[in-house]
Amino acid sequence: MFGFVLRRVGVAIPTILVIITIAFFMMRAAPGGPFDLERPMPEETRQILLANYGMDQPLWRQYLDYMGDLARGDLGPSLKLRDKQVNEIIAEGFPVSATIGLFSMLLAITLGSFLGSVAALRQNTAGDFSVMTFAMVGISIPPFVMGPILALVFGLYLGLVPTGGLDPRYGMTPDRLILPIITLALPQIAIIARLMRASMIEVIRSNYIRTARAKGMSAHAVIFRHALRSAVLPLVSYLGPASAAVISGSLVIERVFQLPGIGKHFVDAALQRDYTVVMGVVIIYATLIIVLNLLADLLYGVLSPKVKYE
Fold this sequence. Notes:
Layout: H1 2-29, H2 43-52, H3 59-71, H4 86-121, H5 126-140, H6 143-157, H7 174-204, H8 207-214, H9 219-231, H10 233-256, H11 262-272, H12 275-303
């Protein structure tokens, strides 16, 4: 396993470098710039700003300077937020994004696995059809549509929870996070329920499950001791892509619910051409996705003795 991890890390490092390089040059190639305002500023002022941030240098020189700072762990200053370092922005916003993402994944895995198992064990019944209908609706409606609908119904019409933002006194409170978490989790609950249903149906029809039942083992023991361990394997394989979907979905959700996570900063920075903030968020997200995929592969090996780390 140690050798497998080393090889994956060896692949991950150049992958991240390629992502950083592509993002760096794509941002510079986009129309507009961080100092392009509705009212043009004097050319002297513009040149001073460019010189202060090293943007008067050739593009290849800017890239080398950025990579040198990055090697020291310095993501640079924000080009739009005065006196703010990108490290500070990410340190302030990451706890919000991590909290939403973590609880969304926990909710999706728990509820999706339960619904999928129930549908498989009650195949072709009203319960099965209900779960599959819910799954189709959850997959069909994207989070940026579901978010405003939930905020409108439960926030404005029913007044049960706030529609967005953090509590100015207590910060991240459950009543302000529940709608973003549910919105982000719903598509994943639907997908996981479908995966779990298909996997569980295949497992309960396998020979070793028939043998366990023939030996007189109770249905409860057959499901929890044998069937679930095998049925969950496709779900583990999906955790890496699911984590990536939750991470990318949080970019929009934080904007919809006005949460100060790094996703909101990313959207604002992209619109304002704040190059350094965009780069910092891209690096964080790329690293998270690679690490989460590695953890999913390792967990798969733990659950399935047949898997060999080669």
